[in-house]
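Weekend entry, working from home. Most of the wet-lab plans are on hold until the incubator is repaired, so I used the time to fold the two sequences that have been sitting in the queue since the last round of cloning. Logging both here for the record. First:
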Amino acid sequence: MNDYKIFCVSDHTGVTVEAVARSVLAQFPRFEFSPSTLPFVDSIERAHEAAARIAASPRALVFSSLTDPALREPFHRAGIALFDLFEMIAPAVGATLDASVTPSGGRTHGMSAGYEARMEAVNFALLLDDGLSPERLDGADLILIGVSRVGKTPSALYLALQYGLHAANYPLTPEDLEQHTLPAVLLDHQPKLRGLTLLPERLAAIRQARYPDSRYASLAQCRTELAAAEALFRRHGVPILDTTRMSVEEIAARLRHAA
């Protein structure tokens, strides 16, 4: 049997350990994994409850980001092998720095990590979603452009929430694509523009799920729109990102580092 139950245990949100687990497990394509996240395991009582739940699950792999060594003890006593980020990495870093570890749960996600700036960026992304409030594009760090359903909105929101970037998105309509130039409102912000595209077959599948058997979702329409959009991008020197095989996390990271 190649199926395993995966547990991601954290004393905070679990976002960090989930990302690490996904990256590691992707290296083992022969296996099938069923993931569960156990966040906010921030007391000995909750650690005992989580350990009991995991111990009752056969063929479990456990990734954790429990910063307090005391919270790991119930798992060790239950005979559960933890792949713990801090237990495995922090001592080696401490040895290099010649410094002792000072555990502090949730520090990477707290208010000190720019919470207010990220929330402001999210509000900006929502206000300028789908071409809204074009008069405010001056305030954008990035402007994502492309045809409908290439991933502009989720990418803009992730850039805001994760990185605090002011990301707007602007849809290219079939009418826009008939022109030989980008919409005038975008031309003043050309250095900020990033073009998103994907394979026509993938776009057709996404649109089909929303508007089944429509012309909008037809493969021919998707091919036409994508080809026209990419031609506009090349004409104006807009960097193009093919999102076909990317998660929203990867799309956002690539956009951020190309900014």
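Second, folded right after the first finished:
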Amino acid sequence: MSVLVVTGTGTGVGKTVVTAAVAALAAARGSRVAVVKPAQTGVGAAEPGDLAEVRRLAGVTDLHELARYPDPLSPAAAARHSGLDPVDLRSAAVLVRTLADERDLVLVEGAGGLLVRYDEEGATVADLAHELAADVLVVVDPSLGTLNHTALTLEAMAHRGLALAGVVIGAWPAEPDLACRSNVRDLETLAARPLAGALPAGAGSLPGAEFLLAARAGLAPALGGTFDAADFRRADHH
């Protein structure tokens, strides 16, 4: 069994698309894959959330959303504002362990960044990853400002003893600017390892078969793909 927590340096960096890409590649290999979203915010009861996007892109149907709040806030603030109970990350950990007993891979997608609060006591997805002893995949934006956000995320992980599965660029632009190209090497320096992937911007709008190809090309072998960080750097990203 294997559990992988997917977090990011903030909101809108591509966590759901990366989660779907990892799930799609694992499912294509015949692995039994489950995806857990402890808290979905900013989506109404009848609206499709992040797991619907994972289903559309990856074809995975073993999906588990534990709590949903309509306001686009942190899970703790969204629960408080709506008057609903906050999600219990201890119960989430129990569910993930139960799923992992019968699946080859369980992906856990967090909300926002690593230290976003899930309840009034300050529980975070970092605490969940620590409880599960799970590796953490960090999804980042390649543009200006990412180095500080990434450094803070990785420092917080190290402080909590969390293992880094890799750093993935969630949406690499078709025409990267100087900041994006320069940041590639610096992101690798911060992570002390090559990039674990870079998915093309717009990958989330691709149909399933094309998305699978993009996932395979955009994720490193450790995540089931063929992405080569050295080739990516040599292309024109230096």
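Plan for Monday: verify the second prediction. The chain is about 40% helix and 20% strand.
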